[in-house]
Amino acid sequence: MDVPFPMIKKVLKMKKKLIAFGVMLCALLPVSAEETELSSPDGNVKMNFFLSEKGRPTYTLDYKGRNVIKPSGLGFEIKYTSPLLENFTVESVGKDSFDETWRPVWGEESVIRNHYNEMVVGLKQNDTGRRMSIRFRLFDDGLGFRYEFPQQYELSYFVITDECTEFALPGDMTAYWIPGDYDTQEYDYTRCRLSEIRELMTSSISGNLSQTSFSPTAVQTALMLKTDDGLYINLHEAALIDYPAMHLDLDDRNFVFKSWLTPDVNGDKAYMQSDCRTPWRTVIVSDDARDILASRMTLNLNDPCKIEDISWIHPVKYIGVWWEMITGKSDWSYTGDYPNIHLGKTDYLHAKPHGRHGATTEKVKRYIDFAAEHGFDAVLVEGWNIGWEDWFGNFKEDVFDFVTPYPDFDLQGIRDYARSKGVKMVMHHETSGAVRNYERRMDAAYQFMVDNGYEAVKSGYVGDIIPKGEHHYTQRMVNHYQYAVEKAAGYKIMVNAHEAVRPTGVCRTWPNLIGNESARGSEYQAFGGSKPGHTTILPFTRLIGGPMDYTPGLFENDITKYNPDKKSWVNTTLANQLSLYVTMSSPLQMAADLPETYEKYLDAFQFIKDVALDWDESRYLEAEPMEYLTVARRAKNSENWFVGGTNGESPRVSTVAFDFLPAGKKYVATIYRDGRNAHYRNNPTDYVIETKTVTAKSKLKIKTASGGGFAISLVPVK
């Protein structure tokens, strides 16, 4: 169950309108069109289900009388047998309504309403006798549907070779997309017409340590779309469990997306055993971009929390020995004495250090001191454990043991020092894609964390998956990521998985999954940079499924200041970096830059210290994909509000209305904004900090630079 809520409003209107005689006797009586229509609770979203002339399951979707999804087919290709596509008969139609409120463990608000109307269509394939149901749920903000297969002799064990779910769009609308890829989501977004995706595909693909593109018209979810008349559409999936991740492949003549599942080495997609079900396919829709950000449909389509005692799960604000390795200032490895490493055999004690190792006892204590001084919860250290000398590119299975430190990393001493300062340590488990190695060592690694007081782990899956031929987003790997989260819960450990499958709301069910990377994060600012508007599209796409460990807080734009050989630039202003702590909501937030850099800008750093990680409510004030967004959030169990405004490439003036504040109450607003001459490239550290008294009637106009932004803390006047 979700977090206990004594005053929980749980109105389970299980009306079970099983449509009188026709429902149970549908084999004898035809089903009317009216029986297979469904509306959202507010009536704005409507869908219709029907069988085509060939008996193929088909659906449509409308919003406020405007077409969102044209007639779109459903079904599957099955290995070694006939497809589940046509020649179906409707056996039953069941309708329910559901309305509840529930409390997430952490998130953008403390109470979430889950309100929908549901229709379950039971189908029988006439020539095979195989049965399949499709469950549709209509919310005020869109549609979720999934396939369900009851246990049956006719379909007991089966292999899906292709899921043929379609999303037929009404025209050549604008898409905000990254290339379809079986191994990475770490791409900059491209904005163009659907008809232009093919010609822009090659230029949209940048290099990565593991990547497998597969089609000139395939894109990843969550996919953001916008019609010419201002309708916003988001396509994604929810509750991805025991199934491969879904991409979308476009028929760019007819503007029809078809689901494209990540295959295994044999080209097969999903291995099924009835009774079973697929993840939900989701369509979020509105004529206001802010509603897309406010949607909680993805969470609502996941099961309630399965962790009974959630007292150990909590937000974490941290710093870490990480950015200096990313920039090349330091290194993860310890020595250059050996051509390769054998765990348990290589003699590190007598090896000569190469002098560039980042995770030294002395340096880590410096980070612990900084964290303690400025009120941070934890310190992450990467490169603490043996094996980094040959960790990548060798398809090495026995690459890390996750428990043995380098000679210059006094794990016990650091543990005790951090404890004396009131600071926690965050563990790092890089797998280098060697999944079997991680799974067989996982219990020992997690127990090691418990024994040494580590409450959270950042895991990584850099490089191609071992065994060869496996991809990051196959059914096997999806199951691995889930296994790691559930296993960690047994040890009361929180998980932040990098390079894993993109989130689909599973954090509702397993809230110890407090973060993922699964998109192009801040590290790419040291790898050539990201587009100035990158963080204005992520909340519409990647964050639809769950929070991201984006690692903001980069105050030094010129990477050559850390490494003269790495000529890269952080393509945002300093004020923009502050805004991300609000706009990129996450219970896991890093101040990613170096302590010595923050000490140059302690006045701006104050906002990072002050900003909350968990929220009672969120208000979306302004939003346009890939252009700008402004968000206000009230801290959990507090009267304090925080506002973040993130801007893209084009300078603009943001209008912030404070009508979300309680009437008649005064607040002290501390505003961190771009200066008059700020620009992400030419003058990124031009910022202004000013204080004003505001009320619910106040409005502020704030100029944001190219790649700029602003942040505001609001504290009530006592």
How does this model look, in words?
This protein has 718 residues and is an alpha+beta fold. The strands form seven sheets. Strands 1, 7, 8, 9, 10, 13, 14, 16, 17, 21 and 22 form an eleven-stranded antiparallel beta sheet that branches. The chain has a seven-stranded parallel beta sheet with strand order 28-27-26-25-24-23-29.
Q: Could you tell me the number of beta strands?
A: 37
**Category from helices, strands and their pairing:** alpha+beta
**Fraction of helical residues:** 10-25%
Distance between the termini: 39 Å
Q: What form results from the Cα inertia axes?
A: globular
Q: What tags apply to this protein structure?
A:
718 residues, Beta-galactosidase, Chain A, domain 5, 11-stranded antiparallel sheet, single chain, TIM Barrel, alpha+beta, 37 strands
Helix-strand layout with pairing:
Blueprint: E1 10-11, H1 20-24, E2 37-39, E3 45-51, E4 57-63, E5 66-73, E6 76-78, E7 88-102, E8 112-125, E9 131-139, E10 142-149, E11 157-163, E12 166-168, E13 174-177, E14 190-193, H2 197-204, E15 218-220, E16 223-226, E17 232-238, E18 246-251, E19 256-261, E20 270-273, E21 276-277, E22 280-286, H3 289-294, H4 297-300, E23 316-321, H5 323-326, H6 361-374, E24 378-381, H7 411-420, E25 424-430, H8 435-451, E26 456-460, H9 475-490, E27 494-497, E28 513-516, H10 534-537, H11 574-583, E29 588-590, H12 595-598, H13 602-610, E30 615-624, E31 628-635, E32 641-647, E33 652-657, E34 667-674, E35 687-694, E36 699-704, E37 709-716
Parallel strand pairs: 23-24, 23-29, 24-25, 25-26, 26-27, 27-28
Antiparallel strand pairs: 1-7, 2-3, 3-4, 4-5, 6-11, 7-8, 8-9, 9-10, 10-21, 10-22, 11-20, 12-19, 13-14, 13-16, 15-18, 16-17, 17-22, 18-19, 30-31, 31-32, 32-37, 33-36, 34-35, 34-37
Helix pairs in contact: 6-7, 8-9, 11-13
